[in-house]
Amino acid sequence: MLHSMVSFMLVAALTFVSGTSTYGQVVEGAQVQLEKQQPSLSVSPASTYPGDVIFVRSKEAQTVTLFSQSYPLQPSQGEYTRFIPIPFNAKPGSYQVQSADKKLSVSLTISPKKFEVDSITVSQKMNQMRQDTARINADQKKINAARAASAKSAYFDGPFKQPAIGKLTTPFGYQRVVNGVPANRHAAIDIANKTGTPIWASNHGKVVLADSLYLTGNTIIIDHGLNVFSIYAHMSKLEVKTGQEVKQGQVIGQMGTTGFSTGPHLHYGMLIGNTYVNPQPFFEASPFLWK
Fold this sequence. Notes:
By secondary structure, the protein is α+β, with helices and mostly antiparallel strands. It has helices at residues 2-16, 20-37, 124-129, 133-146, 280-284; strands at 41-44, 47-48, 53-58, 63-66, 69-72, 74-76, 79-85, 93-99, 105-110, 117-120, 167-170, 174-178, 181-186, 189-192, 198-200, 205-213, 217-225, 228-235, 237-238, 245-246, 251-254, 265-272, 275-277. Helix 1 (2-16) runs antiparallel to helix 2.
């Protein structure tokens, strides 16, 4: 309705008003009216699920609160923005995303979601890999360092792309059980295909880690800006280096079964900082167009 009103005002100006000065005033007034109608604080999507992510935008607020935590927003193209992950243990219900001064507020609904159980059986030798905490912790330091900083503006503007062709063997969020014992939640997706299957960057970004790690094997992490990262694990071959900028669809490696892996597949995850989130919303639409 607002856009229709603006269009009517512009047509009226062209039809009934003579002189560029008056026309310019009408256009400027219409733009001001449009800006006034835009919310000072918005959250998209307004309804979400545990494990997913929301995108907060504000013309005024520089910090917001949610789940009793404060989240500083980042200046970006004339506004303040931030991706905020929704914890797996978030209880269904209605929440308020508020500015730090509590002058601005917007509702957020978290709906219930059930995650299935995924059981796998591995050899005793492979299972022992998970007990080598020294090597695991050393690799985790590398990973944390790679994700410690992110570009202040997004490398991307469109939706993300599934990074390989194959069969989805383990969806996001499944509770993993290894040899009958509950393990960490599988906060990524597994895509299986034959060794050597090309793997490509799911969107534009910069490689912040390309290395052989103990559990995840040949691993790549790409910074997409605004604290959004993607990770690609268990590859047979790396075809990019740390520090290299990549384009969406560019081949960055080949599928394999390195590290803690029972067969050739790609372990693909998306993260906000160090928190894994569901990649599906990023595949469906550009985050800037979420509703």
